[in-house]
Amino acid sequence: MRHARRRVVRRVTRLAAVGGLLLGGAMVTRAVASEPPVPSIGVPYAAKPAGGTGSDLVSRLGASRTAGSWVDAAGRPVVAVTDEKAAAEVERAGARPKMVSHSMQDLKAATRTLRSAPRVAGTAWALDYRSNQVVVRGDSTVSAADWSRLTGVAERIGGFVRMERTEGTFTTRLNGAQPILSTAGRCSAGFNVTDGTSDYILTAGHCGPDGSVWFADDRGRRQVGTSLRGSFPGDDYSLVKYDSGRAGQGADVVSVGNGKGVRITGLADPQVGQRIFRSGSTSGLRQGEVTALDATVNYPEGTVTGLIETDVCAEPGDSGGPMFADGVALGLTSGGSGDCVAGGTTFFQPVTKALSELGVKLIVAAQDGAGSGPAPAPSASQGAAAASPGSSVPVSGADVSSLLSRLTDPRNVGPGLLVIAGSLVALVATRWIRAEQDRKAYRQYYSATWG
Q1: For residue 101, which of 67, 118, 213, 281 sits 20 to 30 Å off, Cα-Cα?
Q2: DSSP of 242-282, one letter per residue?
């Protein structure tokens, strides 16, 4: 029975997670065979930092007197300040001050100047609060002439702009060369969200334009949902509406492989120095640290701003996957450089901004005490047990089997099959034609990958 259960989990992982889809709301990931043992899942970020104190102090003291905050190795908030009075206020609040030469106003002015310069694909910059610098990186595709011109811009700004060349290429973490679940490319699902009427998968915007149809198999037979209301470039988020309208059981769980998952109980903005985890359909579960905020990346497809910079690795196909800590949703995988062998830099779309712009709410686990969680909305899961942030939950074979059977139910294949109102016939026909076109293109383009 144990071996049979493992086969079921592996089967669902191959059909769903590699394609970046949520089976009933539980994102299942495929770990690479050579990947090192995954970290403890019980409470991924065991000690929550007092990061909120740092953020609150920065907000209260203002951009002219501070230059960001971060969490040190001991979990204590550190605030960069530009004057002694601000330092004293930080100490009284229980945080540690660090005197710096350049304020947040200076750092932001530098990024505006960089943004106004001629765009160079393959470059990125972010605010490094700990060094009190703006770090500009250029990947291997940036020519010597372009790098020289950008270096000239940095020199005119001042010595607090640091220029670095990096290995690899800054790309979105999308891969259209391997078996995928959409003609737009293979991605990973992030989190389940709801607008109160319908449920959606929140994923990366570059995964596909509005109208992209997603399937749960490489033959295009099991349709799951359709992309809509995305933003890319500029931002990097989109919604995939479930054809059934509901995420179903397990909508508040992010599965991380080996039959385990993490309950999502809320959302927040991360802190520099915070230890984080991210999961993706190519490289599985990985851990790292937030290294900078408010990052700008000039992808070949366009510029994305306001991203979270981390040192966690990611690979093509991990796009859209969730970043979380202590059961709290933080970001969606956008792109980066390197891989999980050599390492690299990975950028994430903040979840808070995506939800605000889209007007949806995160589906979270029920907790003891109404309104006790950090999420902006109560759980949309019915009958879910009370859960502590980041608590480990089993993803049993029975649960996975029921999710798979629900996904493959013919009633979920396409929207509008039971429409009886004559006024909706044209709309249903239009959507059906679009799905059939995507399905045929999917089969034709990826026929070589059929088993």
Answers
A1: 118
A2: ETTS---TTTTEEEEETTEEEE--EE----BT-EEEEEETT
